[in-house]
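Could you please review the protein record set out just below?
***
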Amino acid sequence: MSAQKDNSEPRRPGRPRGGKRVTASREQLLDIALHLFSRQGIANTSLNAIAKEAGVTPAMLHYYFNSREQLLDAMIEERFLPLRSKIGAVFAEYPDSPVKALTQMVQALADLAGQHHWFAPLWMQEVIGEMPVLRTHLHARFGDEKYQATLTAITRWQQEGKLNRELAPELLFTTLLSLVLVPFSRMRNDERLKTLSPEIIVRHALAVIGHGIGG
């Protein structure tokens, strides 16, 4: 992946000595908003909280984003959807080889989670979990069309003998996402998982999907 890593927390504009406030850029504010969203959830993060974390006035935040909805739209359009598109591109590359596509998807997810510190916890909270602000926004934008097309493709692959017929199409992607993103999300705050690396997470996920848990 060519994207620059952003594992560190976003730099706060802050207030320098002398008390003069530094102007925050739009990109900095988006980075700080994503950091807070991934840490405490979108529903629990106000514009005032973002301004406070950034060390700017609420008026400066409103200069770039007139409302919380506008900030969310910008975050989805500029930060979230490009990563989602990279995942979707894997399937465009291997339309007739689902096992290869799913294997590459695991690696792509791990690459994105390693490059973007907010990606795993935000996806787990907002798309898979029970804090569905982001999921609601995505559904409003895309509806069920892509979801239904995906289920149709999985069913076709099963009928063609390219995928295990025992798999539940509705659970396949949730399972793969969870295998990769749950460890990435937890390893940042769970001392028991500090020894995990992206390579171990990928190897584990591929072992589970490739061979199951039998000996």
